[in-house]
Design a protein that fits this description.
The structure is a single chain. By secondary structure, this protein is an alpha/beta fold. Helix content is 41%, strand content 14%. The protein has 9 helices and 9 strands. The strands form 2 sheets. It has a 7-stranded parallel beta sheet, with helices on one face. The chain has a two-stranded antiparallel sheet with strand order 2-3. The longest helix is centred in the first third of the chain and has 19 residues. The C terminus is likely disordered.
């Protein structure tokens, strides 16, 4: 569970949002295709397959650095082709990109029931990174009032001078709003470095959600951490903290 963490009875459960409470896979697929076509046409290219190789390579390079804003790696694509993009245009495209993702995501099937049940016993919070670099986007949970009503604290990291995860500050802000010490909180997220290691740095016990509906090559953790494949497993959270995998 991470060296040096004191295990106490859980009083608060904090969640990541994207790919933890909602499945945005289809939204990302549509948004990626839209962005690729815009950039390809703007560059005036003819070799589509060659362009896709460059696009995917830059995307992977920036994802490996945990930079998920689109503008930086889109700029890198332009620079690969010895061209300088219009920054304002890329900002506009990035807003359109995330609007597409937002409109094409949905709650995981079990999310509403699980959250409503957990709210009977625990304080609930959300910490999510803003995908729009340096710009305030809409609060994602507002679109899902059926679960939003159960959350006592929502922190949009990367906005309003709050650094993004894995910085410990957004975790500490959420704990403060929940009036809960880190030793009595659990964080549930899908990203190993941003969510799991980020929670550990803040002194919070992590649970790694590798949702069965998310198709991804999961990394190997350098620590022991409970892994779940559906949110239903959280209904037995006290038992879960003594196990490593629930299928």
């Amino acid at each position: 569970m991470g060296k040096g963490l004191k295990l106490e009875r859980v009083k608060a459960i904090i969640f990541d949002f994207g790919q933890t409470l909602v499945d945005a896979s289809e939204g990302f697929r549509i948004a990626e295709k839209d962005a690729q076509k815009k950039i390809f046409n703007d560059l005036g290219l003819e070799d589509w397959e060659g362009f896709l190789n460059v696009y995917r390579g830059e995307r992977k390079r920036y994802h490996n650095k945990k930079i998920f804003h689109r503008v930086p790696f889109w700029k890198a694509i332009y620079h690969h082709y010895k061209k300088e993009p219009e920054h304002a245009k890329l900002i506009e495209w990035e807003d359109e990109y995330w609007d597409i993702v937002d409109k094409n995501r949905s709650l995981f099937p079990e999310a509403k029931f699980v959250i409503s049940e957990l709210a009977r016993e625990y304080k609930l919070g959300i910490i999510t990174n803003s995908p729009r670099e340096g710009r305030v986007g809409p609060c994602p949970i507002k679109e899902y009032n059926e679960i939003g009503i159960y959350f006592d604290a929502i922190v949009i990291a990367g906005n309003k001078n709050i650094p993004p995860k894995p910085d410990p500050i957004p975790f500490k802000i959420c704990l403060s709003r929940l009036e809960t010490p880190p030793s009595q909180a659990v964080f549930v997220g899908d990203d190993l470095e941003i969510d799991i290691y980020g929670a550990l740095k803040a002194g919070i016990k992590p649970i790694w959600l590798q949702h069965r509906m998310v198709k991804r090559k999961w990394e190997k953790p350098s620590i022991e951490v409970p892994i779940i494949h559906t949110l239903d497993a959280l209904l037995s959270i006290e038992k879960l903290l003594d196990l490593q995998v629930i299928k």
